[in-house]
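Contributing new complexes? Match this layout with zinc ion.
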Amino acid sequence: MTLNSHTIPHAYTPDIAGGFETLLHDDDKAREYLLGHLWPTGAPFCPRCGHRKVYTLSGDRLRCASCKYTFQPFSCRWINNGALSPSEWLRLVTLFVEEKSVHQMKQELSLSYNTVYKALTAIRFAILAHAIDARQLISPATGLDSYLKGNRLTGGPREMRMDTIPVYGILRKDKMVFIDLVLGLQAETLFHFHMNFHLKLIRTGNLVYSDRYKEYDALMFCGNDSLPYNVIRRYDEQPYIDEVQDDFWKYAQSRVKRFRGISCQRFPLYMKELEFRFNNRDKALPEILAAYLCALVPSME
Ligand SMILES: [Zn+2]
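Output block (do not edit by hand):
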């Protein structure tokens, strides 16, 4: 065991010589780029306690001098969920940004469907974890907490019913959109508002959205087969959000229609992805996503 005297080549710089493209088929370069995101100053630190004195062990392993935790560079990070090489990760990120289908990604990367699907889940969790309301979202209120076991995405969905399926609200502010978890409302409440207070509801598959409600342009939830969708009445007039057709709804509508196969448990991942894409529509998404994937999985305890 030797004291690690700076094995990491250099600090992360946002300028990539030759551009992001050059990383996509070069594992060494891709890895170096990702390491720069892990340790911006170039010096590794313990992902568990943050201590900066770290020993290098054989292979790829490191050990914290303080808490004795043995780790690999990508331990405890979102990117540690998935069996992809560094350049495969960056290629997947690029295909994700281009909104390719899982099938197309699987073919372009020569990876299995499950490998791609799991890695995409890690990307979506990484996006959601960077939202301002992440702590509220990775919680029993949405059910997303059951996917995380410690810092690994090895869990699965928890069963949801009408009285536990959460409701999300679409809020516009200047050029931004916020998809909020609306505390205290569940699918059941919206059915109640619909039947007793004439809140307009529109159903498309398992997705239900409402007319304007308080500060929200619409409320929405993704249900499952246990819901009484047949109580939803048809209207001649459109709800507010369809009537107004603002730039977010124009952007979201065609994408939301493709949500057909999404479960109520995974729904917030896709809504926060839409929020992220819309709010960062003028930015270089692959680089933002690489940074997000390299971030530590927050401790939710
Ligand atoms: Zn430590």
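Reviewers usually confirm one structural detail per submission. For this one: The chain is about 35% helix and 15% strand.
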